[in-house]
Amino acid sequence: MKILIADDSRVMRQIVTRTLRQAGFGDHDLVEAADGRQAYEMVVNEHPDLVISDWNMPELTGVEVLQRLRATGDRVRFGFVTSECTPEMQEQAEAAGAEFFIVKPFTAERFGEVFAPILG
Amino acid sequence: MSDSPGFVEPNDIDLKEMVDQVWESYLDPDGSAPLLMTGAGPDRFDAQASVSITGSWHGHVVFACSVPAAKLAAATFLAIPPEEVTEDDLADTLGELANIVGGNVKSMLPTGCFVSLPHVLLAPGALSKWPGVVRVCDLVGEWQGEPVSVSMWQEKREG
Fold first, then answer.
1. Which of B38, B5, B27 is nearest to B148 (CA)?
2. Which of A81, A118, B41, B46 is deepest in the core (most CB within 10 A)?
3. What pLDDT tens digit does each residue of chain A (120 aa) get?
4. Which residues of B touch A104 (CB under 8 A)?
5. ipTM field
6. Measured between CA atoms, how close is A63 to chain B, in angstroms?
7. Range of the domain at B64
8. Residue B50 belongs to domain with CATH number
9. CA B47 from centroid of its chain's CA atoms
């Protein structure tokens, strides 16, 4: 599967990548986006199977990316890895079509719980 | 203080729990290099990052440390030797540390708060000031012999 990691922090993209490997998902094709607009364009152009997105990013927030994708009929599997976690954000993410919500700081065990059903 | 009913402002213990989670997850996963609380440290830091929180609560969360500590954190985050860490890596790492702690702080605040993108200051001896704010939480410690501070500041604002 192709997985798009969208985060404006290079170190956090690196940590997400490493944690995916530690959780046993290192064999997938990983691609990266450094802001929300780039994430949106990469989904449209590269058709990843899964998007793991930060919430608070320049250009477009993660939830804005998801809302735009859904508005165009794109059903890519999409979820958030974010330091912010409030009930209203989780409701907004769910309403937009997000499949998971992982809070930073996270562990490989947490990635395993969330991604095993998705990535197998 | 927010007017939200039932709201209890985060304290040093809450902040410490958040910071400990960052250390356990990213900076000290095997428990060999913990952040040790010293209660006192330098007045000024060479490397700082902050996020601002606005909305129903106004303030700032600041992560500050020495350059060697920032370099060690970036090297740990990126899994590279400290000597390969660039200035961009330092800024990115510090910003992400402030962002993670700030995001976790937000979850304890009344609904309707927003966290800014991080601001990073790499300047020896620089002193960041926000006029009209008061420090509400303050953790000062050492990590691998280097000073680290995490603090939370509240802006007193009418209306």
1. B38
2. A81
3. 999 999 999 999 999 999 999 999 989 999 999 999 999 999 999 999 999 999 989 999 999 999 999 999 999 999 999 998 888 899 999 999 999 999 999 999 999 999 999 997
4. 25, 100, 103
5. 0.81
6. 14
7. 12-27+38-155
8. 3.40.1550.10
9. 11
